[in-house]
């Protein structure tokens, strides 16, 4: 069976995306797409690479995603799908790259430092 693979990462989320020829079924961690994300509005952006490539009903997507929150997982899935599509057909890169769908967002959470409330937030200054 032929399948195409892509890894997507964002914040602390990692998504492994497997695209197989099919009818457009999307399954995340064994759960249908709409059930996994519930009413999250941003979730539809995860499937943007399939829409740009006109491949919405050509592939079934089997995705495993771990870590982070729902927003990070959505972005990780989006990058994973885009990379899997380029793996399937490198000509699709011309459609996906200008839309920014192949760019890895490098921003990570900064660690908390001692003597601070958060990473940068210092205790309130008192003059007297």
UniProtKB/TrEMBL annotation:
Membership in a protein family: Belongs to the universal ribosomal protein uS9 family.
Designated name of the protein: Small ribosomal subunit protein uS9
Keyword Phosphoprotein included in the entry's annotation: no
Keyword Cytoplasm applies: no
Gene: rpsI
Biased composition (Basic residues): 113-128
Function: Part of the top of the head of the 30S subunit. The C-terminal region penetrates the head emerging in the P-site where it contacts tRNA.
Region (Disordered): 103-128
Coiled coil regions, renumbered to chain: none
């Amino acid at each position: 069976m032929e399948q195409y693979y892509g890894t997507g990462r964002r914040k602390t989320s990692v998504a492994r995306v497997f695209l197989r020829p099919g009818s457009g079924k999307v399954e995340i961690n064994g759960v249908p797409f709409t059930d996994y994300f519930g009413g999250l509005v941003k979730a539809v952006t995860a499937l943007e690479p399939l829409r740009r490539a006109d491949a919405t009903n050509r592939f079934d997507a089997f995705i495993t995603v771990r870590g982070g929150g729902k927003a990070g997982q959505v972005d990780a899935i989006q990058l994973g799908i885009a990379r899997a599509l380029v793996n399937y057909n490198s000509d699709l890169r011309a459609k996906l790259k200008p839309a920014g769908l192949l760019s890895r967002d490098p921003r990570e959470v900064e660690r908390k430092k001692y003597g601070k409330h958060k990473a940068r937030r210092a205790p309130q200054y008192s003059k007297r």
